[in-house]
Amino acid sequence: YILKTMKSQFSSFITLKDSIAIQLLKLVFYFYFIVTLVVTLTHMYVEFFNTKEAVKHELEVSAHTFSPGLAQALWDMNFEQLSPTLSGMIQFSSIVGVKVRDEQGDNMGLMGMVFNDDEQVIEKQEDGTEVLIKGYTGLFFYSFPINYDQEGHKIKVGEAEIYSSTKVVFSKVRLGFMMIIGNAFIKTLVFWIIFLWIARKKLSKPLAELTESVKQINLSELDNLEVTVNTKGNNELKILEKAFN
């Protein structure tokens, strides 16, 4: 509506794209867009970083929860008990893989997506085969010792790594990212409309009135000539009105 109104007012003497209001809007909107983009990206980075730290904390909590069961399985050399424990761990939404080593560093069991000894990403399938996943760098893990408690005396029986990934983090912040982007878009749109309305009211409309007044000047009747610009304050347009009169 605002654009149609401005276009009808300027059609007789200037195109809409050449108006001062539109030029100011483009300039201000450009800088506003840059600032909004930087702030939005910073906000998204902070949100992602905080969520990743929260996921790491969840891995640490899971380690304390499952450590006694892992310790008992390694102490008893009960691998039939170890496998269901690992399967239960990766059922958690934040865990994508688990790897367990004994005290000598030999792999005793792994489940899901983990790093192998060559720092490559592998994933253990349901049939027991291990598939190499090339080019994936989104894994991170929490490592902790597995200690067996024997009458109050802790004996280290192995070490475990609990893995998560950036995909897990993104899944948790997806809604937050949508809210951040939506908020930035709405604020930008509202700013654009408000600025355009203010520019029309404070600049474009008074200039149009001044132009129409000048166009209607009759050089044979200058005694009662007076140009009026409907604007408040002692701004540039008011000074122009006084100087012209």
Outline the structure in words.
The chain is an alpha+beta fold and 245 residues long. It has helices at 2-10, 20-76, 79-89, 166-215, 236-244; strands spanning 97-102, 107-115, 121-124, 130-133, 139-150, 153-165. The protein has a 6-stranded antiparallel β-sheet. α1 runs parallel beside α4 and α2 packs antiparallel against α3. The relative contact order is 0.13.
Q: What helical percentage do the residues reach?
A: 55-70%
- Counting DSSP E segments of at least 2 residues, the number of strands comes to 6
Run of helices and strands: HHHEEEEEEHH
Tell me the strand order in the biggest sheet. 4-3-2-1-6-5
Structural class: alpha+beta
How much β-strand is present in the residues? 15-25%
Radius of gyration: 35 Å
Shape: rod-shaped
Low-confidence stretches: 9-13
Task: State the end-to-end distance.
Answer: 34 Å
Continuous helix count: 5
Biggest pleated sheet: 6 strands, antiparallel
Q: Mean pLDDT across all residues, rounded?
A: 80
